[in-house]
Amino acid sequence: MNLPNKLTLFRVLLIPVFLIFLINPMGMDQRAVRYIATAIFCIASVTDWFDGFIARKYDLVTNFGKFMDPLADKLLVCSAMIALIGKTDAVVPLPSVVVIIIIAREFAITGFRTIAAEKNVVIAASWWGKSKTVSQMIMIILLLLNFNVKFFEVISTIMICVSVLLTIFSALDYFSKNWKVLKDETK
């Protein structure tokens, strides 16, 4: 197993550790637990960049990586957002409708890619898709930090809106550029 794939697996393994700190503070100070959870989430997020960079630079792209890397991202981001819904100590609460939109987009694009793969069409990640992932990770980091300062409340709210917009735009981009994949060729 090459280094990028190990980084992807490491990211997946960090998810339950992150969730333990976020959901069950184990009697620790809530703010300290949030900072620990944020640090774990940041480390996991950074591995996403490193595994892709290393895989492309050293030609270590594998089928395992093509499958697991985006899955690891989805698991990390979706787990974090679901865990943040309804947090009673949140300065800026994460609306469940935001999480529903983002998760629905992930299901739709994954299904779309599955149909494309059956027709031997590869739908590569677009700029919109990469921007969507980065915006969601930044949004989650801001919500995890949970600073009770007006500036961070505004920035967090803006990032929630940006994440939703990029989620919608990236879905529209994937479908508009690849809509022919959905045409049924049987007559």
Describe the structure concisely.
The chain is mostly helical and 187 residues long. The chain is 76% helix and 0% strand.
Could you explain the architecture of this structure?
The protein is mainly α and 187 residues long. It has one domain (3-182): CDP-alcohol phosphotransferase transmembrane (TM) domain (Four Helix Bundle (Hemerythrin (Met), subunit A), Up-down Bundle), CATH 1.20.120.1760. Helix content is 76%, strand content 0%. It has 6 helices and no strands. 29% of the residues are buried. The model has no long low-confidence stretch (mean pLDDT 92).
> Largest sheet at a glance?
none
Rg over alpha carbons: 18 Å
CA-CA gap between termini? 44 Å
Uncertain segments are none
Percent of residues in helices comes to over 70%
Overall geometric form? globular
- By CATH reckoning, the class would read Mainly Alpha
Instruction: Tell me the number of helical segments per DSSP (H or I, 4 or more residues long).
Output: 6
In terms of topology, how is this protein built?
Elements: H1 3-23, H2 30-57, H3 63-84, H4 96-118, H5 127-145, H6 150-178
Helix pairs in contact: 1-2, 1-3, 2-3, 2-5, 3-4, 3-5, 4-6, 5-6
Descriptive keywords:
single chain, 187 residues, mainly alpha, Four Helix Bundle (Hemerythrin (Met), subunit A), 76% helix, globular
